[in-house]
Amino acid sequence: MKRKTIPAREHYADKIEELGFFYHPDYWGEGRYYEFTQEETDRLETATRELYSMACDAAEHIISNNLYAEMRIPEAVRAYINHSWLDDELSVYGRFDLYFDGRDIKLYEFNADTPTSLLESSIIQWNWKEECFPEQDQFNSIHEALVQSWKDIDEQNGIDRLFVACSRENEEDLWNLRYMAYTAMEAGLDVAEVDMDQLYYNNGLLLAQSGEVVRDCFKLYPWEWMFNESPEACGARLHWYEPMWKALMSNKMILYTMYLLFPDSPYLLPTWNFLPTSVTRYCRKPILGREGSNVKLQLSPQASEETGGDYGEEGFIFQELKPLPSFEGHHPVIGSWVIGGEPAGIGIRETNGLITGNTSMFVPHIIV
Question: What 3-state DSSP class applies to 80?
Fold first, then answer.
């Protein structure tokens, strides 16, 4: 694994905007890239597959042992999650955030419900590779996997119309949503875009503003927000994508549960639901945190880094500290995508600090 530089493409901003990538200033890392060997990406693929299997086992453990209270999940929606899991509702996607320095692979967290950086991980970095390194490969079958995942879901659920919804005032969410809608249309689905506040619940059904019954909905909107805002709507009769059981995997307590079940896994950092007195270097994360908010890195008894935000009242988990690797002061985190339950590729976000948040930079990659 190496970090390299390359001259920026002429008019590259126009090129990525033509592909639907409009929120790129200071985010798309034109002029730099990471280089992997085939053996390294094979190892990332293997780790991703094993981590997803462990996450599924952890979800089963939580449901079977009724551990919802530890997850801070409201009682009103717990039966809905049970039904979602027992009905084997299909998942579209998720993203593991991994430590990787060319040797060790460690799980930081699982963005299982509303992962973004999808568009840039898929067609934007693939287009960059095709222009800059047409003879090289890339660990990236994300687009094809998404299309196939929608076909598989349609075969099982028989989708008449797929509604796609987010809070459209969030530009990044909106363009990720529209890319997901594009993959569903390529799979042959009829797709309608709506804002989350244009959906409403009535007598067991979810309805669009037009009065049309919503039977299938992809939402780029966190389950924990929905649990608090409208728990009765969570029980409406429809197929949600992501399914409600993904609320377990997007919860940071899944990291503790995975470590509890698989303490010898080479991919898991020791994780606790309290801070052991013997641990002096750790990462503290809010159970329901998002985008790097309210994360604290205790680097030594005297030194720490911490981000602000609105999370933490729900409690924290504590991971053994594993600072991001450094490539001449640049710190990458590997986003490894799971689509239709299988590894599908990676995207890399890079920061100059030790906590990856929504101000990081996306950097493409190749395989040599």
Answer: helix
Task: Encode 302-335 in three state secondary structure.
Answer: CCEEECCCCCCCCCEEEEECCCCCCECCEEEEEE
- pLDDT of the chain, 368 residues: tens digit per residue: 999 999 999 999 999 999 988 877 789 999 999 999 999 999 999 999 999 999 999 999 999 999 999 999 999 999 999 999 999 999 999 999 999 999 999 999 999 999 999 999 999 999 999 999 999 999 999 999 999 999 999 999 999 999 999 999 888 899 999 999 999 999 999 999 999 999 999 999 999 999 999 999 999 999 999 999 999 999 999 999 999 999 999 999 999 999 999 999 999 999 999 999 999 999 999 999 888 889 999 998 888 998 988 898 899 999 999 999 999 999 999 999 999 999 999 999 999 888 887 779 999 999 99
Q: Which residue has the tokens 């429809």?
A: 238
Q: Are strands 93-100 and 105-111 parallel, antiparallel or unpaired?
A: antiparallel
Residue ranges of domains in the chain: 2-252+325-367, 270-320
